[in-house]
## 1
Amino acid sequence: MKRLPHFGRWWIAATVLWLIIGLAFIWGYGDLQWQDRNLRSVIVLFSTFVSFLLWVLFASGWRAVARLTVFVGTLLLLGLCALTLRIHGVTGDLVPIVEWRWKKSRVIGTQEIDSPKAQTSKELTNSYAQFLGPNRDAILPGLQLARDWKQSPPRELWRHPVGAAWSGFAIEGSRAITQEQRGEDESVVCYNALTGATLWTHSDKTRYATTIAGEGPRATPTISSNRVFTMGGRGLLSCLDLA
């Protein structure tokens, strides 16, 4: 069947117009969140790329060798990317985090980690026993902070790595409790708020991980009286002794 050259020209013109109008509308109009903008931009770019490939194969008028080279080259490039790269989650704006497949994932062990010594005689009286604090308003009443951090900067007591998670801390006295993914174990860990030392760990053999939502538990522990309540990433509810 004889090709119509003008049809191929209209095809590529419509594809370019779709790309320009689509991206301009996404980023220039409407009250969209960054996540929605990025996601819709990916859809526009992907559909543009597919349309270009179809144009090359069926409407470009190129020789068969050239069309086959573009098509096979695209498949080989996609295969090479699949073999060498992986998506290790996304950012908060739904931008993929791409890394080499041979890069080792950081795994936090269950052993106690040495921490700087602090004055353990101090007593901590403020309680932050649930998500967003005592009244779930992100306010800790009665706390006095220095206003001029240049003259009186806050002092870091301790620091060490923790496992993957989306959990905050629940604090009662000197106990600071959070949830972490440590390899294949989903762990509830109680740290000494003054020294960073691990006081106790409770682990379950379960793991939640998706490309969109990330890895690890997503809830913050809740402390009530002498009990700690936690909800794991796969819905495992635990009631633990605070001590």
Note: The two ends are 81 Å apart (CA to CA).
## 2
Amino acid sequence: MTTAAQKKLIGDISCVLKEDKRIEAAWLAGSLGRAAGDAFSDVDVLVLCAEGKASESSSTYGADITQINKSILMNSLFGGRVLNVVTPHRERFDLTLP
């Protein structure tokens, strides 16, 4: 079951990605995407970028993830293809830009 905080985080991520012209589509993935999550699940978002724009998009969000939410920790993994973020309220989300 998705919590109110998770729903808000999903909405915040969606709003930012919808405005980014480099983003063609985004999907809720992981346990929440399968409707198998719980209050401890992170929000996993798989992001499809326009051809040749994944690296640029990753760099943009990696440099300023506060466009989506404040963070106390952000890890850029796999050459920036995955941004792993923890918010001040200990919510967690991953943006995967394959």
Note: The CA atoms of residues 45 and 95 lie 5 Å apart.
## 3
Amino acid sequence: TDNLNEIQQNIILYGSENPALVVYALGKNDKRAKELATIKDPIQFAFAIAKMEAQLKVTKRNDIPAPERKLKSGSSAGAVDSTLERLREEAAKTGDFTKVRQYKQKLKTKR
């Protein structure tokens, strides 16, 4: 959008067979985008885009990443500590969080 005017952008979007590929190619090659931006005649611009699009090719990547492994640990990370939840509820009612802090400190020292 920085290099091409609105008419040129519309020609790419509505005139190319694969506009996403053309936009990607122009985004990767700023020099080529600036060259095309100098063509002010819409018909010549359309032909230049068609020529460029004919030269573009897509290659598939075969480097598929390995599936993510699940971590195994002694304690389950998603487990809910019912004592901690009970203390938090009690502290929310009373406004005194000292028991919650003491319980958390106790858990830290156990680790």
Note: The two ends are 56 Å apart (CA to CA).
## 4
Amino acid sequence: MDYRSFQRILIRNYILGSLIAVIVIGSTFIFQTINVDTDDRIWFALIIACSFPVMFISEYLVFSYHIKPIKRILPNQQASLEELERAYQRTQELPFLTVKRILIPHYFGLAIPASGLAGLFIYWDILNIPSYYIIFAFLGGGLIAITHAIIEFFFTSQAIKPVLKDLKQRAQILHSTNLSLQDKVLLTIRNKFIMSTLFIAIFPVLLFSLATQIRLLEIDANITAQYWSWAGVIIVIVFALAIFLAILLTKEIEQPLHEIQNGMKKVQSGNLDMLDGYYSDEFTNLISGFNHMSTSIKEKNMQNTQLLESFFTVFAATLDARDHYTAGHSIRVAGYTTMIGECAKLPEDELNLLRKSALLHDIGKIGVRDQVLQKDGRLTDEEFAEIKLHPVIGAQILEEVKPKEAMVELIPGVKHHHERYDGKGYPSGLAGENIPKFGRIMAVADAFDAMTTDRPYRKGMTVEKALSILEEGKGTQWDPYYAQLFIEHMTGKEKL
């Protein structure tokens, strides 16, 4: 949306709001209540004409200041993110700034010079009206300004929507950023209800009371004190009742909104609990929609988890299928690794990551030639050196998976499951607890499965023999704590 189009909309709304306020309120209050002759009407018109330039100049200066960030950005197709954010913020504030502009420079820019000129004309006997008419005109003008400001608020709230849409699209295209107020509330629902209720309830009463006061002064000035003794009580009662009803209505609206808002915050933190809906209005649909969303997210999460688990398992099985001698190796290592993690009382989420890491621990063998991987017989030094690259290749493969956050915690175990506790392993020669936890646990499980599985050049060892080798290698080849947990568990199972 270009600036000139936006400016035309604001001017159109300004004229329309002025006409509504002046015709509905001004004509009723001034021309139907105050009795003035034709000559005085001409002088009134002259006073207004002389005061208008002051009003327009003061209001235009304030409007130019308010609109400046928006005016600067709309024609600029290559704006910086900071400029777009400033313009977006100012656009959101424009309805409130419009109210301030009308209630201060607009109203006082007209009322002060008009009241001053009217006072001088009365003093010079040019105007033949009571001086207290100036006070009533000042008050009536205030009511007109308030009406105009409220109308402009709602007009401007609608007018800014295309501008906000344009700014958001440009920020997304130019800077891949979604513009928002970041949970900042410019006007609460409570304040909206209170101000609206006060205007609807109090404004007609004040207008009627002021018009009645003028009529009474023209009939009999002595009864005005008696009039205000009961009119004041009525105004106070109406004011108090309006406030009370506005608060009750606000609470009725705020309660389900707060419930939904808290529910959304829980969703952001991963809590997908459903909301209790006890409402009989449109909020029932909102609560129902929120609960449907939560249920759908749960189902999608479950499906994604199952799909990811299946992917890891199938991928591991496919990898092992390249060599029939190691078929099922990754799945068995994942089982042994999870068993050690359970014995070490690792948390559930860490156990889940440990199992996934174990399923993919040999993924780097994708980069090893078939003639090396499937060779019958012992490997040469060159071939073994190629095999030793598979942990690094595996880590590099996982680093390329998107999103990175999904794999970042699996990489250390995949890369370092062939490190030795004494620092003589590969690929990095890490020692002791410098080796990542997943790597130390998988090293025990991987070694045990390798020792107990048949190879082309040897038969697999017995469980007892493999466990005795693990016992001997505690503290040198394997982490003594995790090796001991595995041995104890396996020994216990054999005894059963």
Note: The chain is about 75% helix and 0% strand.
